[in-house]
Specification:
It is built from seven helices and 15 strands. The protein has a five-stranded parallel beta sheet with strand order 2-1-3-4-5, with helices on both faces. A five-stranded antiparallel beta sheet has the order 10-9-8-12-11. About 5% of the residues have low confidence.
């Protein structure tokens, strides 16, 4: 399970981290101190639980960047139902706005985690449920390429081709070319049961392989194909036989 804590106060972030670790089993926690960093982590990681500090602005206590980030999360299919805990110094009536965005808990500052233990544990259980579902289903991956964000459904990827400076995601309806530095971390997250690395340059989605003819790998009713090395073809053929995908 992956948890993102976006908290302007480092001491509070550490309290929240320790509290979560004591109550969650297999957990990876990311701490950041700005919404910009939280947005970047959202793009490259599959977050199962958010803890977001939403502090009031100087001029308008209802106009906060944390609130806008929550609105952003609720506006995207990938994060629409992810549990969110909000920490804030705002007045009690702000709780109503948080509820409208379907946040799972509102914890007023200064933090009193013990009295909010049930709320937090409930959110952790929801996050663990989401994590278990995500392990066995195709994911939506985000690739940041310069100033552009590419959105890719990994189930639609036939194969990934790595070059010195670029990574190409090949799909039935075209390809997406991204900067290698921007995509290296993303391809490490591809489902290991679905994607097999064959050689230095190619990662193949075995669910789309139709057959292997010599060194040619053919995809989806033989509409697309690629040439791979002899050793790569043997490795892929052996792997598919173990999975009983080919005879």
């Amino acid at each position: 399970m992956e948890v993102l804590i976006c908290e302007s106060n480092e001491e509070d972030a550490k309290k929240l981290e320790d509290f979560i670790r004591d109550r969650a089993g297999n957990v990876k926690i990311y701490k950041c101190y700005s919404i910009k960093d939280a947005l970047y982590l959202t793009m490259i990681r599959d977050i199962d639980l958010y803890i977001i500090n939403d502090s009031p602005g100087v001029d308008d206590r209802y106009e906060t960047i944390g609130l806008k980030f929550i609105q952003y999360l609720r506006g995207h299919n990938r994060t629409k139902f992810i549990p969110i805990i909000v920490t804030s110094k705002l007045y009690d009536e702000y709780n109503l706005i948080i509820k409208e965005l379907s946040c799972n808990a509102y914890i007023k500052k200064p933090l009193d985690l013990k009295s909010n233990e049930n709320k937090i544990e409930y959110s952790i259980r929801l996050a663990e449920h989401i994590y278990e579902r995500r392990k066995y289903s195709p994911g939506i991956i985000f690739v940041k390429d310069k100033d552009t964000i590419r959105v890719i459904n990994e189930k639609e990827v036939l194969w990934v081709e790595k070059h010195t400076h670029d990574i190409v995601f090949h799909k039935n309806n075209g390809e997406i070319i991204t900067d290698r530095r921007a995509a290296d971390n993303v391809i490490k997250k591809l489902d290991k049961d679905r994607f097999l690395s064959v050689g230095r340059c190619d990662i193949i989605n075995i669910e789309h392989v139709e057959r292997i003819n010599g060194n040619i790998v053919m995809f989806d009713q033989e509409k697309l194909s690629i040439h791979v090395g002899k050793e790569a073809a043997c490795k892929l053929r052996s792997f598919l036989r173990e999975k009983k995908r080919i005879s």
